[in-house]
Amino acid sequence: HNRKEQTRMDRLTVTVPEMAEMLGIGRIKAYELANIKGFPAIRLGKRIVVPVDQLKKWLEERANAGDPNE
């Protein structure tokens, strides 16, 4: 990990563009994702932040939903 990436992982939240970079998706797709009902995004005024732990949990739940062994 480079220094910027390590600092981001230590934070409690990331911005939507940072989340896009983490997930390897585009900014527009990341904002669409942030607006899905049930997605762990928090609106702070006009800014949207995503709690890192909740994002990981949300991703795990989606991954496990497609696994017939779960």
Description:
The protein has 70 residues and is α+β, with helices and mostly antiparallel strands. 54% of the residues lie in helices and 16% in strands. The chain is built from 4 helices and 3 strands. A hairpin with a 2-residue loop joins strand 2 (42-44) and strand 3. The model has no long low-confidence stretch (mean pLDDT 88).
State the main characteristics:
3 strands, three-stranded antiparallel sheet, alpha+beta, 70 residues
Summarize the structure.
The chain is of the alpha+beta class and 70 residues long.
Largest sheet: 3 strands, antiparallel
How far apart, in Å, are the first and last alpha carbons?
A: 31 Å
The amount of helix comes to 40-55%
Basic shape? globular
Structural category is: alpha+beta
The chain-level mean pLDDT equals 88
Order of helices and strands: HEHHEEH
Report the count of strand segments: 3
Q: Compute the gyration radius: what is it? A: 13 Å
List low-confidence stretches.
none
How much β-strand is present in the residues?
Answer: 15-25%
Give the count of helical stretches. Answer: 4
The strand order across the widest sheet is 1-3-2
